[in-house]
Amino acid sequence: MDDLSSSSATSVGWAYSFDVFDTSLCRLVHAPEHLHLVVARELRRLGVSKLSDAEWLYARTQAEFDQRLTVPHHEVTLDDIYGRLSDFLGLAPEVGRVARQTEFKAELRLIRPIASTRSRVATLAGSGQPLLFLSDTYFTRQEVEALLAKAGYPLPTDVVSSCEELKSKIEGSIFGHVAGRENLSGLRFQHLGDNALSDVRNARANGWEATLFSASHWTTRERVMFASGAGDILASTIAGSARAARLGQEVPVKEGVLTAAASVVGPLFAAYVLWVLLDVLKRGGRAIHFLARDGQVLASICERFVRWLGVDVAVHYTYASRQAFLLPALPDGGDEDLIDEALALAYYDRISLSEALISLGYAPGDIDQIAEASGVDPDTPRSGLSESDAGPLRAVLLLPEWLYPLRERARQARAATLAYLETKHFFAAGDACAVDLGWRGTTQRRLQQVVGDRVRLVGYYMGLSNTVLGPEAQTRVWLPNAPWKTALLEVMAAADHTSVKGFGFSEHGEPVCEPPLREDTVLVAWGVRQQQEIALRFVDYVTEAVEREDCEPEQLYEALAAAALAAYRHFMLSPSWAEAEAYGAILHQEDVNHLKSRELAQRLKSVDVFRHLVDRGAKGAVTSWYTGSLARSRGEFIPALISRGLDKMIELDARIRTKRRNWMARRQAREVLGASPARRRGVT
């Protein structure tokens, strides 16, 4: 039975039990034993231990292993473990007590709820049916209750702890023991847990119904994130926060959006924004403007890092777009200068004459007349405009009936735009730090012309290519050579409202967007708000888990960048079908006025793959994300085989690197701690 709250499951005569760790609760670390890395740092800060993170981890896990061997049922308490650990390390009793308390405090600090389980428990709690939490654990019942309460589970709870009952799920002995309780006599049992042996096979062997909770199992990408780092607490926290962000989602959302937001969107933009913030601080800046719709989520991420760093930096989400800054950027000078700049800014590359004139505010009827009078086909792209065509077009636009309305539109737009920027304190300093995703710098070029010499723009970008910016422009580029998929990143940074097209004045003289911004119903229905919520939860978890006194900002940035880029690479090469379906089916607007669009990653047939091997240029005609197209085409043998094969190769590499790193760290710690007491440099 897949749903414990189905109609048959909630009938009279049932009791429901839930595993605790990785079914009801998760930690903000990659593996349970990594909690000991956190404890090691705290103990050093308290001055009661000199052991490194890895050495304390080895000693603590070895003490637990050895202690379990001393009893036939293998069940031990945390007190038992720390007794063994104190003997091994020669800890004074009071130091052992401090270390034990420190471990439980770390558990409380790093525990987070698994939203789907908490929702099930809340629903069942109102039905009056018996609810139990069964845990194979060294924690007491009271300690497990404290962890559940911290995660928002309803109290009181009936907790069965293996170390107190001396019976366990792994041995299969706890199920009959629980069923034999007087208050549960005659009931049927349903159990939910993440372990196929302990929670499912053993429960069923004792006559219980049991469901495997596989949602908490590590994804390939979460493994990749951990393997990309140094195997330390930062790498563990980042991977653990991505998993917890995924498991903490309560509002329903597409599966592909859920996994990508937690493991790609959140980490990638967190790394980028932290880089921006640290660079601005080095430059002495105290304000950052996040431009365009990309800025909605980026600004929210930055606010969280500002709080974590404890710095005085103003974060502004500033409405902007290439279109909004076009008219204001036109010069308030001679007629010929106005027209020349209008054509240079609006009519470039593959943009057609019609698209350029729409951007300049000309109505469809006006465009037809201009095209007819100049002899230029309205569909002619800039690259197809000959010198003999350029002159007549320029002459027509200089005619009063076309020139004067354009000049007035530019004047009004400039006044309103400058007034809006004033409300965002854009001119408060000599430099204005403006953050965008990229990719050519068109917005910065136009904005600099709008503000003139009132302020100098410093543009921050994830990447720049084929830039329109001149050598005088101030830019800072995060990773100029990264293989960015710009259309995908724009979806990942999407806002829940429409793009600003220009500025005007309200009836009260206040600057406003024209036309007014409205909810982007397509993206909202797709899940853009949930995407932001999940990405921000990742940032919240990371900044809550990584204590500022234990970590330099640059260290967190380096770890975030490594994990984020590894995750992004995996997403690009081997998205899940759900991710490819969610992001690949998005209609990407291909023109400046958003009049043409196509799916980012269209589905393929097996024959298409062979054709693209011969004619690689044909790929671009059907997809902007080829591996996304392969993943979407899971019904076709060849695309599915390639996509699945890539994922398995990447996962295998991550597993091997993690195992090798763990083995080397354990061997090194064993050499230090296992040789003789004289060589233990561990405790004070």
Description:
- The chain is α/β, with parallel strands linked by helices and 684 residues long.
- The chain folds into 2 domains: 14-218, HAD superfamily/HAD-like (Rossmann fold, 3-Layer(aba) Sandwich); 256-526 and 534-551, no CATH class.
- Helices cover 52% and strands 10% of the residues.
- The protein is built from 28 helices and 16 strands.
- The strands form 5 sheets. A 5-stranded parallel sheet has the order 5-4-1-6-7, sandwiched between helices. A 5-stranded parallel sheet has the order 9-8-10-11-12, with helices on both faces.
- Helix 13 (295-309) links the parallel strand 8 and strand 9 (314-318).
- The longest helix is centred in the last third of the chain and has 38 residues, at 637-674.
- It is elongated and about 95 Å long.
List keywords for this structure.
disordered C terminus, 684 residues, alpha/beta, 16 strands, 5-stranded parallel sheet, Rossmann fold, 28 helices, elongated, 10% strand
Q: Tell me the major beta sheet.
A: 5 strands, parallel
Residue share in β-strands: 5-15%
User: For the residues shown, what is the average pLDDT?
Assistant: 91
Count of discrete structural domains: 2
Low-confidence parts: 5-11, 591-595, 676-684
Numbering strands along the chain, what is their spatial order in the largest sheet?
5-4-1-6-7
* Helical amount: 40-55%
As an assembly, this protein is single chain
Shape: elongated
Beta strands, count? 16
Briefly note the structural class of the backbone. Answer: alpha/beta
Radius of gyration: 30 Å
